[in-house]
Amino acid sequence: MNNHARQPGLAEPVESFRLGNGLDVVVVSDRRAPVVTHMVWYRNGSADDPAGKSGIAHFLEHLMFKGTQRWPAGEFSKIVAGFGGQENAFTSYDYTAYFQRVPKEHLRAMMDYEADRMTGLSFDESVVGPERDVVLEERRMRVDSDPAAQLGEEFSASLFFHHPYGTPIIGWEHEIERLNRDDAFAYYQRFYTPENAILVVAGDTDAAEVRSLAEDTYGRIAARGAAPVRERPIEPDPRASRRVQLNDPRVQQPSLRRGWLTPTYTSGTAEEVFALELVAEILGGGTTSRLYRRLCAEDELAAGASAYFMGSMVDRAAFQLSVSPRPGVAMATLESGLDAALAAFLADGPSELELARARTRLVAETVFARDNQASLARIFGSALAVGETVADVLAWPQRIEAVPREAVVEAARRYLRPDRSVTGLLLPA
Amino acid sequence: MNAPLPTPKLNTAGPAIDVQTVRSPGGVEAWLVEEHSLPLIAVDFAFDGGCSRDPADAAGSAYLISGLLDEGAGDLDAEAFQGRMADHAIGLGFDARRDDFHGYLQTLSTHRDTAFDLLGLALNQPRFDADAVARVKAQVVAGLQRQAKNPETLCRNALYASAFPGHAYGRPEKGDIDSVSRLEAPALRSLTPALLDRAGLKIVVVGDITADELAGRLDALFGALPAGAPRQRPAAPLPIQGLGETHVIDLDVPQTVLRFAGPGLMWDDPDFIPASVLNHILGGSAFTSRLFMEVREKRGLAYGVSSSLLPLRESAMLVGGTATRNDRAAESMKVIREEMAKLASDGPTEHEVEEAKRYIIGSYPLRFDTSPKIAGELLSLALRGDTPDFLASRNQRFAAVTLADVRRAAARLFGQPDLLVEAVGRPVGLA
């Protein structure tokens, strides 16, 4: 199988193919600088953590830097640094990804190493304890030092009260403390397989070169037979509005967020998801957005107002609004203002100008993204990791352009209902 | 065991980027990198001065002005101005930094007429309408309140306040809640011409535009701004105060944020390049630095630990930091001090120096793979007084660094062991 796809403005086609052992490959050529971005994505994330073992996907991501049978701990980081390369990794709900950005002549060495650690991780007991401490410090830094992050955890847990999207990616502290070598090894055996991985290479290379290098490195890994299956509970449809509130003496600037569950691009009702992208841009995209104009500029209630939506998830997506009051404005007043602005939008829908502006901005973002090989690698990798295709990514601007106004109104009315919402309040003690 | 990969030959060629110097009929100069393969234009520019020009009793002025220039200009009020930006997907904004006032423009080349018009209006005819000033001020105050108990922000502000008491560098760039609350439109309006004067202005353009076209557009953007008077750099860096002291800000959090500062070197110091190699070995960005190995890998004390050279216009620091459990903060700081002392007394190894040079040289192309990155990199080069020739010679300068050079830099930077340390949290046994 070999797929060529061309997007207007991309100098070279985006090519994708599959190796004999099931590894998917995407190549995005950008010849302007002698640099490549090499990424391997695994189709498992924190939402695949076994019950009671929250944080194992992220912990394993850390352990992946602790050496293989071929390369002792730290050796490969020295090699990457010796090339002047950058390396890192990240864990999300649906995927875990590893990357290096290096001068192009070192692509083969990166593939050689990344292929090696797909199956050859050494799991030396002596590194497990200190690395678990590093993860606990990471959690203290990101969550325990920040009341907004603590509310975020409670908010997600309320939005997803059954599905593991409600569990923090990094894990709950008391479960991280008990993660051990055996847990990590079992998890690695289950998910780190060629059938479960996607190789994305972007930059100064082409499909022929990547194919040849990939066959000689990743291609040598034995197939396991089938990709692992994600086993996740299904979130029930929400029937009640919920509120969570966190009071903390460290909070000097209150804020409010509101979220709703929505479908995803792969859920079979993709048109609604394209429409929700537009809703998010219209309501909260920058200073011309509906909420900013109404709450920050006209009513002078809010200091900031924004919207967030990510439809590229496996099971469910979340649509979120967030507002913070101008100094001196009571939260109840701001919340009433938000309720009214939202009710007006649901009743009347967007103006033609708002809709046209949102389409222009979303489509332009995809043009700006073409300037950045690392962004392109992330866009294609994350899309494939949640079950979308290269063609889906390339068609995204046209699909956004094609969403009719009625679809925007309908999607907003169906999903952004008060009786399905979760409200999170961050308040002073 | 695996045979080691062959060590590749060090390629010291600079990035293959053709920088043209474009001069307008009115004498405005810009650097241009033409790149016509994508329909995008990126403009990056900076005026000399920035937050350091804030009056002592009006900290945060430049930062507030940076948020107001695109909130209404000429005949366009804020809504109309921002609407025109949104309708054409134009990115335009300003940022006040310690030593310069930075601006950028990003546009699809098809919308460049509108984009350059808006930039010209923002620079030359900002309105400072009362409602926009009140709104943006509220945003800045809300932002300051949000950061008021943030350990990282508290620690950073405390470090600058202790290092530079009585100097503009000692004041927070965004001001504080009191100072910002007092700022009003008339004062902001009268401060703006001096912030945006052409003495020391640097402009870089990358993308889908020709030299002729750019030359024809520069005067409308920058030509009418005041000429200003060039400011001299001080001959010697302003000394850092508080060395040898450790200050703790009490905050009820389970983790202590630590930041430290010691003397650094100015850009034009002959040892700056060897010092960059030294810093890479101590706490640079690769997963191989001594601090990373000792603090994170061996002891699991922290998620992140790093150091960097921070050359300012009037001073220079070596700064670093980490965040670690309260009961192990003292241990973390001890480990950091020991690594610095070891580098001062024993120096790095020959191997460490070679590896650091390989990293610094090999990673240079990664800074030039997108238009905004190219523009930003060239702008920082221009701001410190270098010319585009630097691109070609930079890697050779690093390649020429010897172990003796790095030892000399280590003796200068770490020979006098006193550090200024700021901690936020409930550290045990630190001070």
What would you say this structure looks like, in words?
The complex is a heterodimer of chains A (429) and B (431). Chain A is 43% helix and 19% strand. By secondary structure, chain A is an alpha+beta fold. Chain B is α+β, with helices and mostly antiparallel strands and 431 residues long. Chain B has helices at 61-66, 78-87, 112-124, 130-147, 151-163, 177-182, 185-195, 211-223, 272-283, 290-298, 329-346, 350-362, 371-383, 389-399, 403-414, and strands at 20-23, 29-34, 40-48, 91-96, 100-108, 202-207, 246-250, 255-263, 302-311, 316-325, 420-425. Chain B has a 6-stranded mixed sheet, with helices on both faces. Chain B has a 5-stranded mixed sheet with strand order 7-11-8-10-9, sandwiched between helices. In chain B, a hairpin with a 4-residue loop joins strand 9 and strand 10 (316-325). The interface between A and B is large, with 78 and 76 residues.
Key traits:
heterodimer; A: 429 residues; alpha+beta; seven-stranded mixed sheet; five-stranded mixed sheet; 15 helices; 19% strand; globular; disordered N terminus; B: 431 residues; six-stranded mixed sheet; 41% helix
Query: What is the terminal separation of chain A in angstroms?
Result: 60 Å
Q: What share of residues are in beta strands of chain B?
A: 15-25%
- From the spread of the alpha carbons, the general shape of chain A counts as globular
Query: Portion of residues in helices of chain B?
Result: 40-55%
| Helical content band of chain A | 40-55%
Helix-strand layout with pairing:
The complex is a heterodimer of chains A (429) and B (431).
Chain A: E1 2-5, E2 14-18, E3 24-29, E4 35-42, H1 56-63, H2 75-83, E5 86-91, E6 96-103, H3 107-119, H4 125-144, H5 147-159, H6 173-176, H7 181-191, E7 197-203, H8 207-216, E8 242-248, E9 255-262, H9 270-284, H10 290-298, E10 302-309, E11 317-325, H11 331-348, H12 352-369, H13 373-385, H14 390-402, H15 405-415, E12 422-428
Parallel strand pairs in A: 3-7, 8-12
Antiparallel strand pairs in A: 1-2, 2-3, 4-6, 4-7, 5-6, 9-11, 9-12, 10-11
Chain B: E1 20-23, E2 29-34, E3 40-48, H1 61-66, H2 78-87, E4 91-96, E5 100-108, H3 112-124, H4 130-147, H5 151-163, H6 177-182, H7 185-195, E6 202-207, H8 211-223, E7 246-250, E8 255-263, H9 272-283, H10 290-298, E9 302-311, E10 316-325, H11 329-346, H12 350-362, H13 371-383, H14 389-399, H15 403-414, E11 420-425
Parallel strand pairs in B: 2-6, 7-11
Antiparallel strand pairs in B: 1-2, 3-5, 3-6, 4-5, 8-10, 8-11, 9-10
Helix pairs in contact in B: 3-8, 9-12, 9-15, 10-11, 11-15, 12-14
